[in-house]
Amino acid sequence: MVFNSLTFAVFFACVLAIHNLPLPWTTKKINLLIASYLFYAAWNPPFVILLWISTVVDWWAAKALVRAERPGVRRAWMLLSVVANLGMLGFFKYGQFLLENFTAFLHALGIAYQPPHYAIVLPVGISFYTFATMSYTLDVYLRRALPARNFLDYALFVTFFPHLVAGPIMRPTELVPQFEQPHRASAEQLCFGLALMTIGLFQKVVLADGFLAPIAERVYDADVQPGALDAWAATLAFGGQIFCDFAGYSTTAIGAAMCLGFAMPDNFRFPYAAIGFSDFWRRWHITLSSWLRDYLYIPLGGNRHGTARTYFNLFATMLLGGLWHGASWTFVVWGGLHGSYLAAERWLRERFAGYQPGPVALFALGLLTYVLVQLTWVFFRAKTFTKAAVVLRGMFGLNAAEKPILPGIELLMVAAIIGGLASAHWLMRTRTLESVLARTPTPLLTGGWMLLAFAIVIEQGAGNAFIYFQF
Amino acid sequence: MPSSISSSDIAITRPGFIRLTASDRPGVAQPVPVRDIPAKPWARMLIAAATLLMIAVAGWEWRMRALGLEAGDLDDGPSFWAEQRRRIDAGGVAIAILGDSRILFDTDLDRFAALTGVRPVQLAIAGSNGLPFLENLAAAPGFRGLAIVGIADRSYFRAGAGLGGPALERYRFESPAVRVSFLLHRSLSRVLAFLDDKYRLNTLVRQMDEGWRVGVLLPVPERLWKLGTTTDNRQTHLWWRVENDERVRTHQRATWPRAVPPVPAAGIASTVERTRAAVEKIRARGGEVVFVRPPSAPELRGFEEQTVPRALGWATLLARAAVRGVHFNDYPAMQGLELPEYSHLSRACATVFTDAYVRALAALTPRLALIAHAPPPLAPADCNPTQGSPANHGEAH
User: Fold this and answer.
1) Does A437 reach chain B within 8 Å, measured CB to CB?
2) Shortest CA distance from A429: residue in chain B
3) At the topology level of CATH, where does B69-206+223-370 sit?
4) Which residue among B42, B178, B218 sits closest to A191, beta carbon to beta carbon?
5) ipTM score of the complex?
6) pLDDT tens string A241-281
7) A264, A265, A209: which is closest to A237 by C-alpha?
């Protein structure tokens, strides 16, 4: 189920009530585990089996890893975990994509091949929970952590519903220790958790789904030739939409976990205030970028094997990171662009090592980063390269048959929401949300909280799925 | 007030961050996260915010009722349609109605039941094309009844399912979570008037734009304001304000497209062929299909005729698919009915039209018969305009 649904409202109220009953801690954990399976099964019950497979394989692989003495045996158990998880991911997420590309390759060779039709349904959140369980065995393999002491704590780490389907991608060392000791939210934690959920749902229901998504759809999903104004407005709207959608999910998840007494890590840190691309990736989808760094970039060699190898590792990591987002070459290009940006930034930092930018230069570099990031969203949002080319041509005023597409009110919405969002990120770039809330007068905060909740209620969200569910 | 570990004693190793994240700790096991809680009276704030929220929602509800929204007007979304469609699979459905918004708005299910003793399953969808739904019904092994297909020529002879596509998808797969949300929403809609898709916050903001940017042409469904109300069994009628509010009526009238390029002959031929195939499938199981062309006002009718001439569309369809049909132009009892926004009948006239087309169909096919104690026929003179909404509405703006 999605956070922005009436089903979840009822579900969460029940979970909160049961979790606060005077029951033994083990019983509470079992309740949370059952609730998490219900949360997942509410989409498509049979896919719970995949969740079980991922859970059980990694549990036994990690146990065997600890017992194994020889490096070869340890590596074999680690590979079993990786192959099982990536195998599931490959089949369900990339099976159709691989088949289509294989067919296209054969056609290019002049071989007429018509593959059988497979209707493969992508299980929601498979990219997230496979990465979470892989981090468990990989941490044990890399001797960064010990396995969980009991299966219940581990299974709950994999399945815990706030992070299950769209992150933040949790590491076992972040969550399992919290399950080992009884946790119950204090009144402050419960109330602040609800406040975080209100902020997250406002971002998703009102800003992303209500105001911004239709603007991007009007340009990206229709057969139109946008001019510069429409192409930029739609792309900026999508940049805002995907942030509000995904950061909204993460904030809601963090709030939901806090209501139950658990802490989850930040996943976003005002990314549109980034200065440079390495800074951007320390602020955007932090739990994915750090996962890719720890389990892909560093094992590939990171920056330890010379300049050329470093650039290769950087680029390969970002290409695969792009592919993680979706089975399409447009996502690969998106990742490739970010890889290129990171490589260029690295080269510039080496070339101008002593350069210390002043405030104006910092702002200009921040603006440049923002604009270049927005350009990459074109490939992320467009379903085909043809569409991406049409939008990019539009952004540079090269579409000859352009017609006005977006109504005036939507141009105003983009200016107000995206302008407000970017300004807020810039003002908050060296702060946390909590530090700002602590300094805000209580009546203002209360009124603001009510207004956000009121906007959610009267927007009457249609229960749209979060964008990252498809990944 | 730390949730897990206080951040106050964490060394700031990278300028710009006062709380470390995984991005600051490469290649190590990540510790239990830190979450601070700002020092505020959160419990009192929650109570105050919740109280203010309830007051604001109550005010909003009052305002929406003043604008003419009614509790009990249900969201006619894909789940509602899928629920009705599943009644076919359950078996025993004698009559199903398919098509677009005209047959949806213009059919009074109560009148239908009073005349025939049978309450049809309403499967027509606004903004859709009836053909994919007829094909869907043809593929339903349990259906052996009568399918009444409503046709607005421009809709039926176009490609695709139009706005009805999501309903078919929802019927094919509806997750438990979506189903439960639908049932909860429907329960809330029975008591809260403001739950209306056309009165969402972003929609109201968008409606402030009265053509500010020259040359922009939005799709018809987005330009349309609230058009109808839906109650149980998907009984749908024109919204009372469209009938009674000049401003709303004028806006809706202006929304309907006028000149639309003619449907190519190949498109008509393809539609006719697909219809014939679907009809044959239903007949092979013992079912039957009839067609109904509900009225449209002369202000639209002329343009519709240019897009799909009756001789090429309607007449060809009946001839090639070997089916019978009722065209409003052919029946005096269907003339002079009130079409407030040119495309759909007023609530009272929908009852008159239903009476007329059911009687006409009963004369065409033995699959539909009037019961012995059927009420006497209605005439256009019985089509009295409604006097405002059933509720006591103040002045709406």
Assistant:
1) yes
2) B16
3) Rossmann fold (3.40.50)
4) B42
5) 0.90
6) 999 999 999 999 999 999 999 999 999 999 999 999 999 99
7) A209
